[in-house]
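Lecture notes, part 5. Sequence design as translation. It can be helpful to think of inverse folding as translation between two languages: the language of shapes and the language of residues. The source text, in structure tokens, appears below.
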């Protein structure tokens, strides 16, 4: 049983992590588990880092969600976009600051150096 299940499911675990009373302080393992759950289930929350599915954009931060639209912060401006155009950024993408395509890193291809 994982941490989210032990706490009674995603909704309850999320409420515990977002408790503003000061009684409960979310732990890094809980915050990491919630993020992985959102990534796996295509759920977005304020503060999540996202990238466009369609182009090679910078990583953006979700600052507001309403009716399937997200207000995203990028550089000095924020804009409203439909969430279906985005996916969660990977840790590597967050580190480099933009979307990474599988073709950006060709090391996963088998390179033949002994072709005669």
């Amino acid at each position: 049983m994982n941490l989210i299940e032990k706490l009674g499911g995603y909704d309850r675990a999320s409420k515990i992590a977002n408790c503003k009373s000061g009684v409960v302080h979310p732990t890094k393992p809980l915050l990491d588990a919630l993020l992985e759950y959102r990534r796996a289930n295509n759920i977005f929350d304020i503060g999540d880092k996202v990238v466009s599915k369609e182009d090679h954009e910078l990583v953006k931060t979700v600052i507001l969600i309403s009716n399937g639209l997200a207000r995203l912060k990028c550089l000095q401006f924020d804009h409203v976009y439909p969430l279906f155009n985005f996916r969660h950024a990977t840790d590597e993408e967050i580190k480099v600051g933009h979307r990474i395509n599988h073709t950006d890193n060709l090391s996963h291809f088998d390179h033949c150096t002994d072709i005669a």
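The translated text above is only one of many valid answers, since several sequences can fold into similar shapes. The two ends are 54 Å apart (CA to CA).
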